[in-house]
Specification:
With 550 residues, the chain is an alpha+beta fold. 45% of the residues lie in helices and 15% in strands.
């Protein structure tokens, strides 16, 4: 909008200044030319009268040339506007001249009129310069004597003055146009400043800074806009905090009955062999659903802590290669091929290892449940970021689902009819997005080279730790103080200003989910904690030394 206003100001002033310059030029040039012609005509009449009075004393042709020499004026003061002139005389069918201008340089029409003893006035060019010629018939001096006097005046000085005037007017028009554009830019900036403030405030709120408000300042016209915007932001913040408290409260309230159900179920499972087959099947179904419910409650508690801004990051500066190896061993996928080039393995990132492990675990389990399994874990550099990725061999994710699957309880078209069948909670990818966002990164899904899906986790690079510094010993920082960056999918994002009481922490629980946490993460929204099993083997490495897909 600023550009359009600036262009409008510039074009408007260009048209106005151009019109004013045109009117000024034509009016001034017409006035100067008319004044010049009037003055020159008076001079020509005076010279003609001098010729008439002196003609009685002319006896020979030499006398005519001497008379014309007296009439030639070479304009000794051109700065004062005097025009140089030349005099010609047509007498007894013969032309006389005493200057460089002769009858051959006269226009044919003008010359014909003079030879027909007619008075004539005409403007024409001689040698590329404008000249003004006046031909005057002198009254008969005798029975056959009726000469014609021709005065030719050089108008070069007047033409130069008009050219200077035109150049000045054009320069002034351009200066006015540029000044108008600058003025329009400044005025539009001042006028649109409140809109920019409102836009920045809206972007901040969309990014999770719900305590952002507008200040109308001393501009009374903006008071209504600012107050309406602030009321809307207040209601939005209250609604989000109320929803977060509700989720947290419900999750906490469900923990007690779930614990009772889990304990009772443990008793039934301990005597499962004593039950008839149909009862054993029922116990298995109940056990699967109770455990899935426990994981869902744990995930809801985790999300509520993130929404409230009370989650903490235990950041450590680690090498990318070490991080990928650690994650593969921790999630029990030591045999899964790893692709980390040597130039990427030596890069450093600042991460919370537990959260990154859970992110990769959710993505791997998601691939196993809905895409035939993961085929590779790897990392690559993308400018000033490192992209961790998990490839699967499934059919891929439809473009219309690639952002929606990271929303809470959202499932894409591939798993729309499989809710509950895969043991997912519908929160796995949402937790992935929240954990990555806490690190100042982003996550998205794209196609891999084999036709399946590639889930990409992009994290900012960190500076290598100084010599002697123990990088894993970094202090924990609140998640609200961690670098925030809007991921590709849309989420609610906690801020440092969020109230600590938005979600209460359950006694004896940490940031992670509690209870059994087998690996399960549905691509279409499911996700859980990874299981820490025993008997893990080291990830395979390429014999050449660089990690690659096997």
């Amino acid at each position: 909008m600023r550009a359009r206003v600036t262009i409008l100001f510039g074009l408007s002033l260009l048209v106005l200044s151009g019109a004013f310059a045109s009117i000024t030029y034509f009016a001034t040039s017409s006035y100067l030319v008319n004044q010049e012609r009037s003055t020159l005509e008076q001079q020509a009449f005076a010279n003609a009268d001098f010729v008439r009075n002196s003609f009685a004393y002319i006896a020979t042709s030499q006398s005519v040339y001497q008379l014309l020499g007296q009439l030639d004026t070479l304009a000794p003061h051109p700065a004062k506007g005097a025009a140089s002139s030349a005099a010609l005389l047509y007498f007894s069918k013969r032309w006389y001249h005493s200057s460089a201008v002769d009858q051959d340089q006269l226009p044919t029409a003008f010359k014909t009129a003079v030879e027909n003893d007619e008075s004539v006035v005409q403007t024409f060019d001689i040698g590329g310069q404008p000249h003004f010629a006046v031909g005057l018939q002198i009254p008969a001096l005798g029975p056959t004597t009726s000469p014609v006097y021709v005065a030719i005046f050089n108008l070069a000085s007047t033409a130069n003055s008009l050219r200077v005037l035109l150049a000045s007017l054009i320069s002034a028009a351009l200066v006015v146009t540029v000044a108008g554009a600058v003025l329009g830019r400044w005025a539009s900036g001042r006028a649109l400043l409140p809109l920019r403030d409102a836009s920045r405030a809206a972007l901040a709120i969309a990014g999770g800074q719900f305590d952002t408000r507008l200040d109308s300042g001393d501009v009374s016209d903006l008071a209504v806009l600012a107050s309406s915007f602030n009321r809307m932001a207040d209601r939005l913040q209250q609604r989000i905090e109320r929803d977060a408290r509700f989720t947290s409260d419900v999750s906490h309230e469900l923990r007690s009955p779930l614990t009772v159900l889990a304990n009772s179920l443990s008793v039934l499972e301990s005597r499962r062999d004593e039950l008839p087959p149909r009862a054993q099947q029922a116990v298995d179904l109940v056990a699967a659903e109770v455990r899935r419910f426990q994981r869902m409650v744990a995930d809801l508690l985790e999300i509520s802590r993130i929404d409230a801004g009370s989650a903490e990051l235990d950041l450590s500066v680690v090498q990318v290669g070490e991080l990928v190896d650690r994650v593969a061993r921790t999630i029990g996928r030591g045999t899964l091929p790893i692709s980390v080039p040597d130039d990427v393995a030596g890069l450093y990132v600042a991460v919370d290892k537990r959260r990154v492990e859970r992110v990769i675990a959710n993505l791997v389990d998601n691939a196993e449940r809905y895409a035939g399994g993961a085929i590779c874990i790897g990392a690559e550099r993308r400018q000033d970021h490192v992209a961790l990725f998990v490839d699967d061999e499934g059919p891929g994710v439809e473009p219309q689902d690639r952002e929606r699957i990271f929303e809470r309880f959202s499932r894409g078209s591939f798993a729309a009819g499989s809710r509950g069948a895969g043991g997912g909670t519908g929160l796995g990818l949402a937790l992935v997005a929240e954990h990555v966002k806490l690190h100042g990164g982003r996550v998205w899904v794209e196609d891999n080279e084999g036709g399946g899906a590639r889930f990409v986790v992009e994290l900012p690079l960190a500076a290598p730790p100084e010599d002697g510094e123990d990088s894993p010993g970094s202090a924990a920082v609140p998640a609200s103080d961690a670098p925030q960056r809007s991921p590709r999918p849309r989420h609610k994002v906690p801020t440092a200003g969020a109230e600590a009481g938005a979600a209460s922490r359950a006694p004896g629980t940490g940031d992670g989910a509690t209870g059994p946490a087998p690996a399960a993460a549905a691509r279409i929204g499911a996700g859980t904690d990874s299981a820490n099993g025993a008997g893990r083997v080291a990830p395979q490495r390429d014999p050449s030394g660089a990690r690659g897909r096997s």
